[in-house]
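README, section 4: Worked example with a bound small molecule

Sections 1 through 3 covered apo chains. Here we extend the same pipeline to holo records, where the ligand is supplied as SMILES alongside the sequence. The molecule in this example is adenosine-5'-diphosphate. Nothing else about the input changes; the structure line simply encodes the ligand pose together with the chain.
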Amino acid sequence: MGTRPERVARTSVYLLIILAAATAAVVFSSALTYRNALSAADDSLKLQALGIAASLEASLQRSDFAKENLLRDIISDGAWEGIAFLALYDRGGRTVLHSNARLLGRKVEDSRMQTAFAEGTPQHYYLMLGTDERVFILDAPVRLHSAEYLLRLALHPYPAENSVRQARIQLGISVGVTVMLWGIGLVLMRSQQRAEKLRQTIEERERFAVLGEMAAVLAHEIRNPLGSIKGFAQYLIEQQKTDPARNQQPLEIIVAETRRLETLTEDLLVYARPAELKPSRFDLCELIHACVAALPHRPGIACDIDCIAPLLMTSDQDKLRQILANLLQNASDAIEHEGTITVSAAAARDTIVIKVIDTGSGMDADTAAKAFTPFFTSKTRGTGLGLAIVDRIVGVLRGTISLETAPGKGSTFTISLPAHLPER
Ligand SMILES: Nc1ncnc2c1ncn2[C@@H]1O[C@H](COP(=O)(O)OP(=O)(O)O)[C@@H](O)[C@H]1O
Ligand SMILES: [Mg+2]
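The generated complex, written as structure tokens:
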């Protein structure tokens, strides 16, 4: 069956496939209709032209050619619709008859005419007239009074092209409907993905709630006996101070390790259940200065602060202090001998961007990918909770965090936070 996100992704894929298939079917059938309409229009024009040509030939047989206006009269007679012009040429290309009397007697050089004469069968094609009109032409060789002529018929294609126009409209509608379908499909897919994301957030929140409860109980249960162990060890150290023969080292180890366990339980508690948001207004520059000052001093490490005071923001100061303390500690850990830690902060509209930059060891891609995972550490005495806590608190403060790093190139953590959370 797969997990839920997989199922959601699969549904999206199905939806896309159905949409693509529907699109292909609609476009294909519309294109087919369009093509059929085109050839049907062609056929009907051809039939119409052949019919006219046949009856014209018959009436020309009966008449003498002396009547110059013969063809014009036929057009104005109105028996046939859609005729653009009519002409009769002799083998030499001379215009014997024309519906436009001014063109009579004119000689026409036309390879198509020669083809029609040579083949002895009617030829048809489309032609652009000088008036920018597209017409359907039928060149029909005819025998009149034992001489060969060419009867040229030009038809306006638009009556026949009505069906083509309809097909074109249909094609347009199909494209429109398809675009609409895609729009609806994409909106559907997006809302489904959004719902899935929301569900994941809720699930995560529930998981953290249970985890927080467990961590609180555990921390409480561990803290008390831990306090006793540390207290007794310290008591023993005091007692035996007067006796130089006694080895104090094991007791000191006990004290150091219990301290470590205390930090771990505290970190775990913070990670699993961050205290609720208490937004207040404060100067971020001041907070940064305080955090940098609180960082245990190490010779060889220089600290730079790039911030123009006052940089007022409304957020949870304690949580921000926790974030900065963790990032500064990591930066300090990453510098082996000498290096610089830079903390910068600036406001960009409603967002405050804080950067913690170090010139330390940097991380390879694998470490960087795991750095925010709880309990991941590359340090012998690390808890692996520092960045997990940072990530979690940044989320609680409705911000985002990103990391840029490379081995030997140092690391840059960039945090974007809303400048003003609603105060309570
Ligand atoms: N500024 C940094 N430079 C290099 N590596 C870092 C930096 N910050 C974090 N890391 C890496 O990410 C790991 C996890 O950090 P963190 O969650 O704070 O746990 P911890 O500090 O206890 O190891 C560290 O062990 C280290 O490998
Ligand atoms: Mg750390």
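What to look for in the output: The mean pLDDT is 89. Residues 326, 329-330, 382, 386 surround magnesium ion (ligand 2) (CB under 6 Å).

Section 5 describes how to batch many such records.
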